[in-house]
Design goal:
- The complex is a heterodimer of chains A (262) and B (266).
- With 262 residues, chain A is α/β, with parallel strands linked by helices.
- Chain A folds into 2 domains: 179 residues, Rossmann fold; 66 residues.
- Chain A contains 8 helices and 9 strands.
- In chain A, β1 and β2 form a beta hairpin.
- In chain A, 44% of the residues are buried.
- The mean pLDDT of chain A is 90.
- Chain B has a single domain, classed as Orthogonal Bundle (MetI-like fold).
- Chain B is mainly α and 266 residues long.
- In chain B, α3 crosses α6 and α8 runs parallel beside α9.
- The model of chain B has no long low-confidence stretch (mean pLDDT 89).
- Classes of the chains: A alpha/beta (262), B mainly alpha (266).
- Chains A and B meet through β5 and α2 of A and α7 and α8 of B.
- The structure holds adenosine-5'-triphosphate and magnesium ion.
- Magnesium ion binds next to α1 of chain A.
Chain lengths: 262, 266
């Protein structure tokens, strides 16, 4: 039996933007099916750039990416869909929550009834079944972010890309949503690539933490997290968690120290 | 919350009406006190009386002017939105055509009106055309700006979902452009009326299809100043009605989601 191909594999991909900014030095990263990979790094280290590459939204200026072994994002394979949750909720303010969650299915030409059912399920999955008929502005920031997650989950993606989805939220809400996300991932499975600049968040969620450094953006550490799933509040208090956080802090500190030394 | 937000809702129209009452009272008082002749400054009561006695004549003219302005506004909306949609299709089209839209905007209508009136046989059509020329620019420029101002995150989402060009236009760009469009419409509704009046002045058409501008011209020549004022009042009132209707349309379309039309925060 051959090993299943990586869901997304980045091979020596680098990105220099048109204005000359070298956002990402050549990086290698392979994400296996079922992994929850956290990309951890300081602001400006190219996390969003790398994630947008994985989404097929930007092309690398050097190197290549592959998805399930193919060199392009699979188009019409329902078992290989990719969805993304952005740094801000990016909901359509003119549409109700239900229509927002249904959008990817609408765009794919799904029947209205089928789309409504899937959108309601997805909203129920993030605990928002009762606000389907509201407008986004009537929701709190945390609720808007959950709608955004429901919108991503509505297509049952095999690969879920998340760009600091809870970065703008307070710590209480973030802990709560982290726990919900972990439970959700544990039940539905799938592969997640999750960008964050919070060490605790990465340590709590991921099965593997990839630490990045800035100027130029690159990967400096790749740390497996063997702790049992699903993660519980008790895990946050455990010695394993503390040790992992310490190790990640050291890696991040070392990276920023290098930058200061230059 | 600032005291500004605590004003009762009715104040929005009560206050200006109160101001009008005071000003009209002062005007009436001044005209009576100093015995100003009506051919210089008619009193508000005299203007009101003229509005009533000349109502048949003035109503006909009002219908003509308002008809021209409304037709022009409708054409400006359709043609302006169509042009903006064309601009939205490509930067090249926009870059090559937008300067001509600006040209329309910066050329004074009084300068073009005589030409249009010479070229176009039917006076009414010529007048409508003049008003369109004046009213169309804010619609084009605002709608084009709105169609371009797309939330980059949503644009990415549409790309990842492999949305067609049509889906992106219909579900993302057009809804997002609505607040901008209504901003343009608000300006254009006033401009359509101004355009209609200015064009009538230039054309100087009298007789059957005479509009309010012609009544002003004629009343000026005849020193019938009360009628001149009455016609002015009607033009101003028409402008206010246009503005109110446009506002109501904007509110109906946007009140559920856009900041500009949300009810005051509780
Ligand atoms: N479209 C762009 N054009 C030019 N430069 C860009 C562009 N997008 C990002 N950059 C630059 O590339 C670098 C990496 O940006 P990126 O957004 O990937 O960082 P990030 O790690 O996601 O940061 P943050 O945590 O603040 O979101 C930054 O220096 C940024 O200024
Ligand atoms: Mg980012």
């Amino acid at each position: 039996m051959t090993a299943a191909p990586s869901v997304v594999a980045v091979e020596g991909a680098a990105k220099t933007y048109a204005n000359g900014t070298c956002a990402l030095a050549p990086v290698d990263l392979a994400v296996a099916p079922g992994e929850f990979v956290a990309l951890l790094g300081p602001s400006g280290c190219g996390k969003t750039t790398l994630l947008r590459m994985a989404a097929g939204l930007v092309a690398p200026t050097q190197g290549r990416l592959s998805w399930w072994g193919a060199d392009h994002v699979p188009a019409d394979d329902p078992a290989r869909r990719i969805a993304m949750v952005f740094q801000s909720p990016t909901l359509m303010p003119w549409s109700r929550v239900l229509a927002n969650a249904r959008l990817p299915l609408d765009l794919a030409g799904a029947a209205r009834a089928e789309g409504d059912r899937a959108a309601r399920d997805a909203l129920a999955g993030v605990g928002l079944a009762d606000v389907a008929d509201r407008y986004p502005r009537e929701l709190s920031g945390g609720m808007q972010m959950r709608v955004s997650i429901a919108r991503a989950l509505v297509v049952a993606p095999a690969l879920l890309l998340m760009d600091e989805p809870f970065g703008a939220l307070d710590e209480f809400t973030r802990h709560k949503l982290d726990a919900e996300l972990n439970a959700l991932w544990h039940t539905r499975g799938g592969t997640v690539l999750f960008v964050t600049h919070s060490i605790q968040e990465a340590a709590f969620l991921a099965t593997r933490v990839v630490v990045m450094a800035a100027r130029p953006g690159r990967i400096i550490a790749d740390v497996p997290v063997p702790a049992a799933q699903p993660r519980t509040p008790a895990y946050r208090g455990s010695a394993d968690f503390a040790a992992l956080c310490a190790r990640l802090s050291a890696a991040v500190a070392q990276a920023s120290g290098e930058v200061q030394a230059q | 919350m600032t005291p500004r937000d605590e004003l009762p809702r009715a104040f929005g129209w009560l206050a200006p009406v109160g101001v009008a009452a005071v000003l009209l009272g002062l005007w009436q008082g001044a005209v009576t006190a100093w015995d100003v002749p009506a051919y210089l400054v008619p009193s508000p009561a005299r203007v009101a009386a003229t509005l009533w006695t000349d109502r048949a004549l003035l109503a006909d003219s009002l219908r003509v002017t308002a008809g021209i302005a409304l037709t022009a506004l409708a054409i400006a909306i359709v043609a302006g939105v169509a042009t903006a949609l064309l601009f939205a299709q490509s930067r090249v089209i926009e870059a090559s055509l937008f300067p001509y839209a600006i040209l329309l905007q910066v050329t004074p209508i009084v300068a073009i009106a005589p030409l249009i009136i010479i070229w176009v046989q039917d006076t009414r059509v010529a007048l409508v055309l003049c008003a369109v020329v004046v009213a169309i620019f804010p619609i084009i420029s605002n709608t084009a700006l709105g169609l371009r101002s797309v939330d980059p995150g949503l644009a990415d989402l549409f790309r990842m979902s492999r949305a067609t060009r049509w889906q992106t236009l219909w579900r993302l760009r057009i809804p997002g452009a609505l607040p901008y469009f209504f901003g343009g419409l608000r300006v254009a509704s006033g401009l359509a009326l101004i355009g209609a009046v200015v064009a009538e002045f230039v054309a100087g058409t009298g007789g059957q299809g005479a509009g309010l501008a012609y009544q002003i011209l004629l009343a000026g020549i005849q020193l019938n100043v009360p009628r001149l004022f009455a016609a002015l009042v009607l033009i101003a009132a028409t402008g206010v009605v246009f503005f109110a209707v446009t506002n109501a349309l904007a509110r109906a379309a946007l009140s559920r989601w856009h900041e500009s039309e949300l009810p005051p925060a509780e």
